[in-house]
Design goal:
The protein has 514 residues and is an alpha/beta fold. 32% of the residues lie in helices and 18% in strands.
């Protein structure tokens, strides 16, 4: 069976030995060891060579060729070892329940269910919405999960109420999802720890990975994870855990900055979504608009808006956008057939490229007007905005002003805060770039996520509390040192010496509550 289909990353023996040694040094002791996806048996060999007082070792493996390799570890003088050619998803693991302490050790597949499905793999559990996701979440990707995550959850359920320690190599994102699951499902754990692993060195994989260890308990659960820089580190560098029902990346830093935690008085929005960059996104060439195929685009100018993408914000290069985007609707669901009369050149252009637009796969376009877009509403056309990329580990907030009287739009890799004035956009961007905000963001951000900055994260920043707690001289310094302001702006912003007046200027006119 193809290794890519199985997400097969065999653990080098040297790494397996390091892991067994670290677990032993940390004071974990077990009468039995179970490896649910044992491969060629390197973890089993590491247990044997460590000469630990283990009474039984069970390995489960779906691939027959690996089973044959692992069986070579069994000697006539060592009857403790069983190697079983089984599918972990079809195995009843509860048969190994005893009163003796158990260690579950291993390295389950590093692949998602959707990736494996795309490769026609069958190393999957029975299809189910096992996290009980509802509606849109189940349809649009949150129901996608790592196979390792499902194995974790099977182990948690099969061995709850037993004296079991689970120590598995996995992606750090999987470890966090498992922690959330334990917390939400009220599965008691203790002594959770994460040892970061150099996955490039050991597996030639560019992904954040770790050894995730936890012990099951029925008494006094503790949902905090001590995070160690590597397997040799003697003390944790941080602690992940739940504060106010929110999973945070650094509990200490969160407590130090939580004075700005709360709810944004203005709703953050995601940028425009069209899923057809070849047709909808434009660039200037010889004073004319061209699409990504290099074709000259002749459509009504009223339907082309300046566009920002994530890379434009991080580059710090230009205050004027160099891209454009075609906007077919002013609000979601607006009838687009009207364009045949109001914008005949645009209508011809869209129909010329209808094959691309009609082939968009996302279910959000189903039963919507032809050539629809999303992430569009009154907020899209706000003349002043604060914009931030969702894709970078360092959150840079950029004030955005109109260009030639037109609002500047951003794509769906970005989030925007619609503002009612240049004052609001510049002051809020400066405050969000302040050290206090950046420390707060670092305490809750998980930088290995595909999209580290999310609407949920941004919405948790109480902008009014933020303005109140930044000394005005520091806020002025942040304004004066903004690395980038997009668009046409000629106003010098001075915040004065009165917090109350500034808060009134920013928030008193209207409360744009979520």
């Amino acid at each position: 069976m193809n290794k890519k289909i199985l997400g097969d990353f065999q653990t080098p023996l040297h790494l397996a030995k390091q892991i067994v040694s670290r677990l032993n040094d940390d004071g974990f002791h077990w009468a039995r060891v179970l490896e649910p996806t044992c491969g060629m048996g390197n973890f089993i060999q590491a247990i044997i060579e460590a000469e630990l007082p283990v009474e039984a070792i069970i390995g489960i493996e779906i691939q027959a060729n690996y089973v044959q390799q692992a069986l070579r570890l069994i000697t006539l003088s060592d009857t403790r070892i069983q190697i079983l050619n089984q599918d972990i998803f079809a195995s009843d693991l509860r048969q190994w329940h005893t009163q003796d302490p158990l260690l579950i050790l291993g390295n389950p597949p590093w692949i998602t269910n959707s990736e494996q499905g795309a490769k026609n793999g069958d190393n999957l559990p029975t299809k189910s919405n096992f996290k009980q996701l509802a509606g849109l979440d189940a349809l649009t990707g949150k129901s996608n999960f790592d196979v390792a995550e499902y194995i974790w959850i099977k182990l948690l359920h099969d061995f709850k109420h037993t004296d079991t320690t689970i120590a598995l190599l996995c992606k750090t994102s999987v470890a966090r999802n498992v922690l959330r699951y334990c917390h939400d499902a009220h599965i008691g754990i203790r002594d959770a720890r994460m040892y970061r692993i150099d996955s490039q060195k050991w597996f030639a994989a560019s992904v954040d990975a770790c050894l995730f260890v936890l012990s099951l308990t029925d008494e006094h659960p503790d949902y905090a994870i001590d995070v160690f820089a590597n397997l040799s580190a003697q003390s944790p560098e941080s602690q992940i855990g739940f504060v106010d029902k929110t999973l945070v990346a650094n509990i200490d830093t969160y407590h130090a900055t939580r004075l700005i935690a709360g709810r944004s008085p203005i709703e953050w929005r995601q940028g425009i979504k069209h899923d057809a960059a070849m047709v909808m996104e434009l660039h200037r060439k010889d004073n004319r608009w061209c699409n990504k195929a290099g074709e000259s685009v002749d459509v009504e100018d009223a339907y082309i808006y300046p566009l920002l993408k994530s890379s434009d914000l991080q580059a710090h290069k230009s205050s004027l956008p160099t891209r454009g985007v075609i906007v077919t609707q002013q609000y979601i669901g607006e009838d687009t057939h009207r364009l045949q009369e109001s914008a005949p050149r645009l209508w011809r252009y869209l129909n010329h490229h209808a094959e691309i637009l009609d082939a968009r796969k996302s279910s959000i376009y189903t039963n919507k007007p032809r050539f629809s877009i999303f992430g569009v509403g009154d907020y899209t056309f706000a003349q002043h905005k604060v914009v931030v990329s969702g894709f970078y580990k360092q959150a840079l907030f950029v004030p955005v002003m109109p260009v030639d009287g037109k609002p500047v739009l951003c794509d769906d890799t970005c989030y925007l805060l619609p503002c009612k004035s240049a004052l609001e956009a510049i002051v809020l961007a400066a405050a969000l770039n302040h050290t206090l905000t950046q420390r707060f963001i670092r305490s809750i951000i998980f930088t290995d996520a595909k999209r580290p900055i999310t609407k949920t994260l941004l919405s948790s920043i109480n902008l009014e509390a933020l303005i109140e707690h930044i000394p005005l001289n520091e806020l002025q310094d942040c304004i004066d040192s903004l690395p980038l302001i997009i668009g046409t702006h000629s106003t010098t912003i001075r915040v004065g010496e009165d917090h109350t007046q500034l808060l009134n200027d920013l928030f008193a006119v209207e409360k744009r509550l979520l």
